[in-house]
Amino acid sequence: MNKESVGIVETKYLQIEEPIDLDSGETIDEVTVAYETYGELNKEKSNAILICHALTGDAHAAGWHDGDKKPGWWEIVIGPGKALDTEKYFIICSNVLGGCKGTTGPSSINPKTGKEYGLDFPVITIADMVKVQKKLVEAFGIDQLVAVIGGSMGGMQVLEWMVSYPTMMKKAIPIATAAMSSPQQIAFNAVGRQSIFSDPHWKGGNYYESGVIPRNGLSLARMIAHITYLSDESMDIKFGRGLQDKDEISYDFSVDFQVESYLKHQGETFVKRFDANSYLYITKAVDLFDLSVNDSLIDGLKDVEAKVQVLSVDSDWLYPTEQSTDIVTALNANNVDVSFSEIKSNYGHDAFLLEKGQLNYLFANFLSENVVEDLMMENIATIKADADVVEAAKLMLDKHVTHIPVVTDENKLIGIVTSWDLSKSIATNSNRLTDIMTTTVKYCNAGDTIEEIARHMRKFDISCLPVVDEDMVVLGLITTDQISNLLS
C-alpha cells in the first residue's frame, strides 16, 4: 500500500425508509444502499464528488478491504495527489439498485415473503438507480456535488443525473458511454441473458434455496461480454495465436489458445462474485436506457446545466466515439458548456479503467477551478473622483492601461474611467472626471471562479472588471485578455 492510496476502507450501508417509486410503476418499500466514501466532507458540504460504477462494478472504488489482494476498481484516479484528490474532495461511490454487492437487488430478502426476491424483483432503469443515489447524497446533507463521474453504464448514470437533477452538480464527466443503447449493444446483452436462461440451474430465477447457481450460464454471459470490452489490437498484443500450456495444437476440443483460457478464467472468476439475476436486471436497465425525447437527443438534453466533459476511447467498439460526439452535438445545440476528448488507447472499452495517465490529466484539468485571485492584476493604478480628465489621461499613458478604478480616500470603488470615456470627454468638452466616469460599475470578488466571470463579461460585453473585497475596497483588475491567455 503506497502513500497515494486511501488505505484500508470499509463498505457502509444506508437504509432508505420511504418507498422508492420506479419507472415501471412498481414500488420497492425498503432499500439498502451499500456505499464507500474517501476523504472528508467539508463544513460547507461543497466538496463532494459522486462516482458511478459500470455494469458489474460495486461501491469499492478505491483503497483496500482488509485482507484484499487488490485495491478498488478505480484506485488509479482516487487518492491523495491523484485527480480525484481525497485531500481536497469527498468521494462517494455506491452499488447500484439491482446490484448484488450490498444494495437491494434480486438476491436480497423480500420483506413480504422472507425469501430472496428472484424474479419478483421489479424491472429497474438507470433513472431508478440514480433516484436511489440521490437519496444517498441527500442523506449527507449535500445540496450540490462538485461533479458526477462514471464510465460505461456509469456514464449512463452521469447522463441521467444531468437530465433528472440538473442543478445538483457543477460538473459532469460521462466516459465511454451512450445516451441510448444501440441495437448492437442490446444484442450482446440479450445473448448474455439467454445464456443464463438456458442454464437448467437457473430455475426461473429461483435457485437460491438449492444452493446451486447457474454457473455455466453466467460464466458464458461474462465471456461474451468480456470480448466486447477488449479491442482486436489489445487481444493480439496480449495473446496473439499463442497456445496455452502446450507446444502444439491438440486436434480435439480442449483449450488450445491463450485467449480461450483467458476468457474461461474470466467467466469462472466472475461467477464467484456476481449474481446471475442481478446480471439479468442490470443488463436490461442498460438496454432500456434512452435519453431522447420524441426521437430527439437535443430535446432530451435541453435542461442540462452542468459543465460537461465527454470522454471516449478511440479503440472502443462497444461504445464507439460516434456515440460520444452525438452527446456533444446535442449539448452544443442547447448551449451547454461542453468539451470533448478522445482517450488514445489499444485497451478498447476497458481503457476507462486502465489509462492512468490520461484519465488523471483529463480529470484534473477539468475539475480544477481557477479563481479571480489567481489571475488578477494587483497594485493597479487608481484615481480619485476630484481628479481632472488630463490627470486621468496621463495616468493611462504612464501605466499603459485602458481602465482605471475611481476610488475614495479609503480605496473603495465608486466608479471607473476608461480610454473610451476619455475620448468622450473630447467630444463633450468635459474636464471633470465625474462628468465622464461610469458610476454603475460591474465588479467581481477575488473568490469568484474564472468560469463565472468569463460568462459575466461575455454577457455584458465587458473587457475589464475591478476586483473588490466585501467592503468594496479595490484589490485589483481582471481582463478578458488574461482569461483568454489562461484558457488557451
Automatic annotation (TrEMBL):
Highest taxon listed in the record's lineage: Archaea
E.C. no: 2.3.1.31
Subcellular compartments: Cytoplasm
Keywords: Acyltransferase, Amino-acid biosynthesis, CBS domain, Cytoplasm, Methionine biosynthesis, Transferase
Record domain CBS: where: 376-433, 437-488
Family matches, as InterPro entries: AB_hydrolase_1 (IPR000073), AB_hydrolase_fold (IPR029058), CBS_dom (IPR000644), CBS_dom_sf (IPR046342), HAT_MetX-like (IPR008220)
GO CC annotations, alphabetized: cytoplasm
Enzyme class: transferase
Biological or metabolic pathway of the protein: Amino-acid biosynthesis; L-methionine biosynthesis via de novo pathway; O-acetyl-L-homoserine from L-homoserine: step 1/1
Catalytic activity from the UniProt record: L-homoserine + acetyl-CoA = O-acetyl-L-homoserine + CoA
A single BP term in Gene Ontology: methionine biosynthetic process
UniProt-recorded Gene Ontology molecular function terms: homoserine O-acetyltransferase activity
Residues where substrate binds: 222, 350
Active site positions, chain numbering: 152, 316, 349
Family listed: Belongs to the AB hydrolase superfamily. MetX family.
Oligomer and partners: Homodimer.
Free-text function comment from the UniProt entry: Transfers an acetyl group from acetyl-CoA to L-homoserine, forming acetyl-L-homoserine.
NCBIfam families, per the entry: homoserO_Ac_trn (TIGR01392), PRK00175.1 (NF001209)
Protein name: Homoserine O-acetyltransferase
Organism: Methanobrevibacter thaueri
Upper classification of the organism: Archaea, Methanobacteriati, Methanobacteriota, Methanomada group, Methanobacteria
